[in-house]
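User: Sequence recovery, please. Input:
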């Protein structure tokens, strides 16, 4: 059987547009994704990004769930460094009360001390593993030391607040949902939240704590090839090495990828051409810019230094016609052993983005070779 294909969406804001249009586009895309046969529709959590509208996953998930009927809807991921375990459980408990059995609660370490930069990866040149390009690791230290990040942290947390260890937050969330939470001899019950039929997920970009916590608790794990492609194999290996039966009897891995699909490779390349400028805006610390048109991107100055800054992301974005992108995704699946793939697509025009997902779904669900890969 073909492994499931799911979507991660950021509610991208296009140049000349606004957050309202981006959010309406996300809701429309979710409806279309359901009709195309995608398994899940996740939304990210990002802050202080002029080109991204998905700042409050629980709110957006509620809008998407109300507009769809069957597709699983969830977070990819809630940044637990900015919220308490109780607030997360109450939000998703409320959603589950209205849309029972369809919600995925994806958790990420973002916002906790030391969480901005993935676990260091040994310096090494680009290599190909079982057909999959593993580029050199990007050095995030230049970003996290900027004064801007300290300001962001102050705005996202109450004054003086310190987030508990990630493992503790995950355990508290699980206990509150299960109704087994106790502290200082007292039991606490979350309403809504206790008994919620949500799937709990851990997302991670390295072989660090997120992968270990997911494995040790027997939870499903999502590894980010599209965010930190250099570390994807280490992340998946660390999760599987740490895995102990818990919620799941066996490891379950989702791996993400950036894709742009069009009827021809030339059209896909044109649609994807602004992506380098968008990634540059993130990696210079300015925050994702509104996604440019291809013409705007072509008219924007570009240097060799800019190219070096984003090369790993450009080299690992899958761009092309449906057959070629599906082949690249099969390679990603084979190299990582993924049980499911999670794709994200950004283009300036919403119609092109919808068409990209539609073309990929048709190719993916109609292919006959995936089952032979085991």
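Assistant: Recovered sequence (374 residues):
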């Amino acid at each position: 059987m073909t492994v499931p294909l799911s979507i991660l969406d950021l509610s991208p804001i296009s140049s000349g547009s606004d957050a309202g249009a981006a959010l309406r586009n996300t809701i429309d895309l979710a409806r279309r994704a359901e009709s195309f046969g995608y398994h899940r529709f996740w939304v990210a959590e990002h802050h202080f990004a002029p080109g991204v509208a998905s700042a409050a996953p629980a709110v957006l998930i509620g809008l998407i769930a109300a507009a769809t009927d069957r597709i699983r809807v969830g977070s990819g991921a809630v940044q637990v460094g900015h919220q308490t375990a109780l607030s997360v459980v109450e939000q998703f408990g409320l959603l589950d009360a209205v849309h029972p059995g369809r919600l995925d609660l994806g958790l990420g370490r973002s916002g906790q001390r030391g969480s901005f930069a993935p676990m260091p990866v040994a310096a090494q040149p680009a290599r190909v593993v079982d057909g999959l390009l593993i580029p050199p690791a990007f050095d995030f230290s230049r970003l996290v030391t900027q004064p801007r990040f300290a300001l962001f942290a102050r705005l996202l947390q109450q004054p003086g607040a310190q987030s508990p260890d990630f493992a503790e937050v995950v355990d508290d969330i699980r206990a509150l949902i299960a109704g087994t939470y106790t502290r200082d001899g007292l039991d606490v019950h979350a309403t809504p939240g206790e008994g919620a039929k949500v799937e709990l997920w851990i997302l991670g970009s390295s072989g660090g704590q997120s992968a270990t916590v997911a494995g040790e608790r027997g939870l499903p794990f999502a590894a980010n090839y599209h965010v930190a492609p250099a570390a994807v194999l280490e992340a998946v290996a660390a999760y599987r090495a740490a895995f102990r039966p818990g919620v799941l009897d066996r490891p379950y891995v989702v791996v993400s990828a950036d894709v742009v699909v069009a009827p021809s490779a030339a059209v896909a390349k044109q649609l994807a051409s602004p992506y380098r400028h968008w990634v540059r805006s993130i990696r210079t610390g300015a925050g994702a810019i509104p996604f440019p048109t291809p013409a705007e991107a072509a008219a924007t100055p570009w240097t060799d230094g800019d190219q070096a800054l984003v090369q790993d992301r450009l080299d690992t974005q899958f761009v092309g016609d449906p057959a070629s992108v599906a082949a690249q995704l099969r390679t990603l699946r084979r190299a990582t052993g993924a049980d499911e793939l999670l794709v994200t697509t950004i283009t300036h025009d919403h119609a092109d983005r919808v068409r990209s997902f539609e073309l990929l779904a048709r190719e993916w669900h109609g292919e006959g070779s995936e089952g032979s890969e085991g």
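Residues 19-36 form the longest helix (18 residues).
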